[in-house]
Design brief:
This protein is α+β, with helices and mostly antiparallel strands. The protein is built from 14 helices and eleven strands. About 10% of the residues have low confidence. It binds fe (ii) ion (FE2) (2 copies).
C-alpha cells in the first residue's frame, strides 16, 4: 500500500517509493529504496523535499493512528472516479496530476521572426565551432594526447544558452548532418539534447554545464574504432563488434588521463550504452547501479543516432524515433524518456494526451509543420466520466481544441496501454 507522508514523518525501516519535486533537488535521485541509514534519513529530512510516498507493503508503515487515507493500493490509484470506460474494464480510476506537470517547465520567450533569424545564425556558428573543437579533440585523442576540456567549456555554455532561448533551433540544425560529419556533430547534438533534458528535469544550472560537457565527450573512445568499421554499410562481424563495444572503456581511459573532467562525464562516457535490463555494454550493469546521468545519456545518444543519416540506415522522423524508443522494453528509463519526449515538444503516435476540453485522446499522426500539434483521436470524456464517440482532430488546424498535457496511461488505470492503444489506433470507431 502506498502512502504519501510529510518528510518529517519519515522513519527508518520505511520503503521510499518516490519523492516529490525535481529529481535534482533531493539527494537520492534513485528514489525507490529501503531507508535503513540514519544519515540518509537526516539528509532527506533536511532537503527541500516536502513529501515522500512510502510503500507499506515493502517496509515499515506509518502509525495506524495517523489520519491519512492511503492514496494508492497495489500500485493502482484509489477508486475516486469509478465509471468504466468500456466493457473490458478499462477505467480511468482517478484523476492524478499529470506527471509532466510535476516538473518545472522552462518558459521560453516568443521570438519575433527577426530575433529567430538572428538566433539561427548564432546557433549555426556555435555548431560550426563545436564541430571543429570536437574534431580537434578526437584528433588529440587519436594521437594519444589528453582531452582539453577547458577549451570546450565555452562551447557547452553557448550550446546551453541557445537551448535556453529555443531548443528547437540548435537541435534542428544539429540533426542535419552528413554521414561524414556524423561522429562529430553527434557529440554536439547529444550535448544539446542532454542540456535540454537536464533543464526540463530541473537540474541546477551549475550541473547543467557538466551534463552538457558529458554529452560532448561521451564518444571520445570512438577514436579507437577504425573508419572502415564506423562507416561499414553492412552488418558487423563479431570481431568488429568487439572493437565497437570497447569504445566506452577506451573513452573512459582517455578522459581519466585528462585534467578537469567531471565525474559525470567519466561515468556517462563509460556507461552510455548500458541498458535498464542489464544487457548493455561494456559492463552489463543492472538498472539499480545506473545513475540518472547515464540513463539520460542512453536516451539522448540513441535518439540522435536513429534520427540521423548513417551509413547503414536512413533516419527516422522525430516522432517515429520516439515511438520506437518507447516500444523497446528494458532499454531506457521510461520516466526519463517521457521527460525527454516532453523536452522536445514532440508527441509520438500512440501517446495518451489530455485535451483542453477535458477529453482523453491518443496521438494518431504527426503534423510535420508542428510536432507539438498532432492529429489525435479523442475517446473518453473526463467530464462525463465515460467513453465517447471517437473523433479525429487535427489540433494544428482546430481553433478550439488543443493538447493540454501528456498523460501516463497507468495513472488513468490503463494498465495494458499497448493493447488498448493498438485498438484505438486501428479503429476510428469503438467496437
Ligand atoms: Fe557510444
Ligand atoms: Fe554516441
Amino acid at each position: 500500500m502506498l502512502r504519501k507522508i510529510p518528510t518529517s514523518q519519515l522513519g527508518l525501516g520505511m520503503f521510499v517509493e518516490s519523492m516529490e519535486g525535481s529529481w535534482f533537488k533531493h539527494p537520492f535521485w534513485r528514489s525507490r529504496f529501503l531507508l535503513t541509514d540514519q544519515e540518509q534519513l537526516q539528509q532527506i529530512v533536511s532537503s527541500d523535499v516536502a513529501h515522500v510516498t512510502i510503500d507499506e507493503s515493502r517496509g515499515q508503515g506509518l502509525a495506524i493512528s495517523a489520519e491519512r487515507a492511503p492514496i494508492m493500493q497495489s500500485g493502482k490509484a484509489s477508486v475516486r472516479s469509478p465509471k468504466p470506460i468500456a466493457a473490458k474494464a478499462r477505467s480511468p480510476v482517478a484523476r492524478p496530476r499529470s506527471y509532466l506537470r510535476d516538473v518545472a517547465k522552462p518558459t521560453l520567450k516568443k521570438l519575433s521572426p527577426r530575433e529567430r533569424a538572428a538566433e539561427v545564425r548564432k546557433a549555426s556558428g556555435t555548431i560550426k565551432r563545436s564541430k571543429a573543437a570536437v574534431m580537434n579533440m578526437f584528433e588529440d585523442a587519436r594521437l594519444g594526447n589528453s582531452v582539453k576540456s577547458k577549451t570546450m567549456a565555452p562551447l557547452v555554455e553557448q550550446i546551453s544558452k541557445s537551448v535556453n532561448i529555443d531548443p528547437t533551433i540548435i537541435l534542428n540544425i544539429a540533426r542535419l548532418k552528413t554521414k561524414d560529419e556524423y561522429t562529430y556533430l553527434h557529440s554536439v547534438a547529444v550535448c544539446a539534447l542532454m542540456v535540454n533534458l537536464a533543464r526540463k528535469m530541473g537540474a541546477p544550472e551549475a550541473q547543467i554545464q557538466d551534463i552538457g560537457m558529458a554529452g560532448l565527450l561521451h564518444d571520445v573512445g570512438k577514436t579507437s574504432i577504425p573508419d572502415s568499421i564506423l562507416s561499414k554499410p553492412g552488418k558487423l562481424d563479431e570481431k568488429e563488434w568487439v572493437t565497437v563495444r570497447n569504445h566506452p572503456q577506451r573513452g573512459h581511459d582517455i578522459l581519466s588521463a585528462s585534467e578537469g573532467i567531471s565525474d559525470i562525464a567519466l561515468e556517462v562516457c563509460l556507461r552510455h550504452h548500458e541498458k535498464m535490463d542489464g544487457t548493455g555494454y561494456p559492463g552489463k550493469i543492472p538498472a539499480g547501479n545506473l545513475s540518472i546521468f547515464t540513463r539520460m545519456s542512453a536516451i539522448c545518444d540513441v535518439y540522435d543516432a536513429i534520427t540521423s543519416q548513417r551509413s547503414y540506415n536512413s533516419p527516422l522522423s522525430a516522432s517515429q524515433a520516439l515511438a520506437k524508443m518507447q516500444s523497446w522494453s528494458g532499454h531506457f528509463d521510461q520516466l526519463i524518456l517521457r521527460n525527454f519526449i516532453d523536452s522536445l515538444g514532440i508527441l509520438p503516435v500512440g501517446t495518451l494526451v489530455r485535451l483542453n476540453d477535458d477529453e482523453l485522446a491518443i496521438v494518431i499522426g504527426e503534423s510535420p509543420k508542428d510536432y507539438s500539434a498532432p492529429i489525435v483521436r479523442s475517446f473518453y470524456s473526463l467530464d462525463k466520466g465515460c467513453e465517447i464517440t471517437r473523433k479525429d482532430i487535427d489540433t494544428r488546424r482546430s481553433r478550439s481544441r488543443k493538447v493540454l498535457s501528456v498523460e501516463e496511461p497507468e495513472k488513468w488505470g490503463f494498465s495494458d496501454w499497448s493493447t488498448m492503444s493498438a485498438e484505438l489506433l486501428s479503429k476510428p470507431t469503438a467496437s
